[in-house]
Write a structure and sequence with these properties.
Blueprint lengths: L1 H9 L24 E7 L3 E4 L8 E5 L4 E3 L2 E4 L8 E5 L2 E4 L3 E7 L13 E5 L3 E5 L8 E6 L3 E9 L5 E6 L9 E5 L3 E3 L15 E6 L4 E6 L2 E7 L20 E4 L2 E9 L15 E10 L6 E4 L15 E3 L1 H10 L11 E2 L7 E4 L1
Amino acid sequence: MIAAGIAAALSPTPHARARYPAPSKSRPGANDAVWIWVGRAIQTVTFYDRPSTRSTRLAAHFRDRFFPITREVRAPFSAHNDLWYETPLGYVHSAWVLPVRVYTPQPFIRDVGEWGFWGEVSHVFTDARAEPDIESEPVYRFYGGAVYHVVDGFEDEYGAGWYKVFDEFPPTNPGHQWVLARDMRRISRAEMSPIHPFAGEKRIEVDLDRQRLVCYEGERVVFTALVASGVDRARVSTPTNRATPVGERFVLLKQPSRHMSNRPYPGGPPMAGDVFDLPGIPWNIFFDPGGAAIHGTYWHNDFGIRRSHGCVNVSIAAARWLYRWVYPIGGYEDGYIQSDLQVGTPIHVF
């Protein structure tokens, strides 16, 4: 009953005047933001009394149900992923649980300025609607940690604040959606400032056999992360190829947010393989003209194994660090930071 009560208290509600969870812990961060860890079930997940599938099953949650995360635990599960989460409901394996930072809501800004700001979904999820009206039809469900360009604000007749977010995907008409302001956190300039901007000889190595990414400054390792690369193992010329391109590459383009989709649209390329439609993919580092990128992932949390359409998936936290570390360096208001062989950080994929 206690666990059920906690989960109910954290449930997102569809209005900006709704009561949000009071964070139990304060962690230092940008603007002294206060947040708690909440896990979202990406698909059906099971809770156990111990971090083992052989232990007693306590509960199950379906997609988009969520629960507090109290700590991380390492225990055997699969050959590539031994991470479990301890929760008030029991222990759950991490593969299909997205850990989300749920923040206290920020004050609503009606006038966002000429350019706007970068915003991060600061709740487990929020519904993006065609109009700033709770009765308006949802267009997408935006998930915690996803990043969007906020271009306008609006206050409805009930005093609820809404933010208008830009959507660059061609079939979207109109090219924006509206989300409740209390579910969107403004990303500060400090959070996007470059990491080690004067360091020389930066490079990234992506080992597809080990499913691991390593960042170097000269011969010094400064960062490492597990990845999930393309499902296929070899680059072949077929429309359904899902292999990560290998070889000596470099950063071609950086984007804080990207809507990736293979939905067909008039004048666009034909759909290849299974359909995906993913708005707000955060912290994108493109390294291949075919569209392969290193980026954050909110549709799985299982790294160390091949599972992507060709990109190099990493956690949202890892993607943010990488985005700030690689060259070229851009400004806060740059939605596209382009590069070339002379400037972009080398990326060796093998």
